[in-house]
């Protein structure tokens, strides 16, 4: 995508320069609230004119525009998400003159944070379609995807402006210094001098402004977009998270030529049949890393077994994978693993989200093992172990709750009244 295509995506009146009277309206909360409502209604009604609702369905985007909180009503509406996602999934979507991409572009450039949440909720679908078409086998015949790239550049440029040329740093704990949680094994300097220096790690280097999505800059732009999604993931609907997990599973690749060449049974072990009786489903059992092979251990097709993964014996197979296998540099994999970690371990996530993330993490583990990527192997193995422990703890608590309820419902014999003898 070049700059000429991006110039076609000009912000609408909703995202133009604020009027000089903005200072007076900002001082009036009621006026500001009403302008936000009016802006959200205008954006939703403009989208309604672009989409054709199912005549059989009683759902209409106009009903969301008439609510007290139009943007949040749209964000929490599965029907609205389905309607727009089906239109975006069209084979002709994502081109330069695509009106839906223009709508997403203008909506994200608006100053309303709730409208931006709507655009971010469709980011997994947009990235899935975009990356799948870029890396598909018949990519030579793929039409222009300037529309998708314009939305990604809008999100990226907003983050560049927010970071103001500064890197994202993280403080690395110094284990040689005592804390509330540990006492260092090594003795401190008897003279009382502190020779340790705070260790700082660079989580993300400073971002450079981009006017086009070049192949060399695509991983950085996609990674920044995923990071923006992660910042708002607590407000994302569950169906958007499930969409992300399904595309992550497909990006890892289910038809890897070396999928049966992983470390054998000593690295991971998946129970056959209906899963381990203790676990109630298929799970990767962590073992100590070893390069040795045991004659009694058989190499297993990890990726194929993960396609039949049943979480906690629910007996349902996951739906068909979306997307295709794509390159996963660390710029994309790092924010993707953070997102999957939230989907996997977030206490408020639904079980569908956790199950979809569980499959994605295991597929990424197989991919990392095939690519011999130490960072990917370490991160995915850790998530797998945390997932196993969380499910075991949930099962124990559920069993304890059932036992306590059964004990409460069990009738007990009436106690005889106690008789106390009092001496006079």
Automatic annotation (TrEMBL):
Entry-linked Pfam families: Hyccin
Source domain of life: Eukaryota
Positions with biased composition (Low complexity): 10-21, 399-410
Predominant place of localization: membrane
This protein's UniProt keywords: Cell membrane, Cytoplasm, Membrane
Compartments in which it is found: Cell membrane; Cytoplasm, Cytosol
Record region (Disordered): 1-21, 179-199, 399-424
Protein name listed in UniProt: Hyccin
Provenance organism: Hevea brasiliensis
């Amino acid at each position: 995508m070049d700059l000429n295509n991006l110039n076609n995506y000009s912000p609408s009146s909703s995202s133009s320069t604020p009027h000089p009277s903005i200072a007076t309206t900002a001082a009036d909360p009621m006026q500001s609230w009403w302008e936000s409502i009016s802006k959200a209604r205008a954006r939703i009604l403009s989208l309604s004119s672009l989409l054709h609702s199912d005549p059989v369905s009683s759902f209409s985007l106009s009903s969301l525009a008439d609510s007290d909180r139009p943007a949040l009503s749209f964000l929490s509406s599965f029907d609205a998400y389905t309607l727009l996602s089906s239109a975006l999934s069209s084979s002709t979507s994502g081109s330069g003159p695509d009106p839906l991409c223009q709508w997403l572009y203008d909506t994200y450039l608006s100053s309303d944070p709730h409208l931006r949440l709507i655009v971010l909720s469709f980011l997994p679908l947009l990235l899935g379609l975009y990356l799948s078409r870029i890396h598909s086998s018949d990519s030579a015949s793929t039409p222009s995807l300037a529309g998708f790239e314009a939305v990604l550049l809008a999100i990226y440029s907003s983050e560049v402006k927010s970071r103001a040329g500064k890197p994202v740093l993280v403080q690395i704990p110094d284990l040689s210094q005592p804390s509330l949680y540990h006492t260092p094994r090594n003795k401190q300097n008897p003279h009382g001098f502190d020779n340790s220096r705070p260790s700082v790690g660079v989580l993300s280097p400073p971002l450079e402004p981009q006017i086009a999505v070049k192949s060399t800059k695509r991983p950085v732009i996609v990674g920044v977009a995923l990071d923006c999604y992660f910042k708002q993931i607590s407000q994302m609907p569950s169906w958007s998270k499930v969409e992300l997990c399904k595309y992550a599973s497909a990006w890892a690749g289910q038809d890897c030529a070396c999928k049966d060449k992983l470390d054998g049974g000593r690295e991971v072990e998946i129970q056959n049949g209906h899963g381990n009786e203790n676990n109630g489903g298929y799970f990767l059992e962590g073992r100590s890393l070893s390069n040795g092979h045991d004659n009694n251990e058989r190499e297993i097709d990890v990726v194929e077994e993960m396609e039949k993964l049943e979480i906690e014996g629910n007996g349902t197979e996951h739906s068909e994978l979306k997307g295709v296998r794509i390159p996963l540099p660390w710029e994309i994999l790092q924010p993707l693993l953070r997102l999957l970690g939230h989907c996997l371990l977030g206490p408020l996530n639904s079980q569908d989200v956790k199950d979809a993330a569980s499959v994605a993490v295991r597929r990424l583990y197989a991919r990392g093992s095939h690519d011999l990527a130490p960072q990917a192997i370490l991160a995915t193995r850790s998530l797998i172990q945390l997932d196993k422990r969380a499910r075991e703890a949930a099962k124990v608590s559920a069993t304890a709750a059932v036992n306590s309820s059964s004990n409460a419902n069990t009738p007990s014999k009436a106690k005889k009244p106690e008789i106390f003898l009092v001496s006079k």
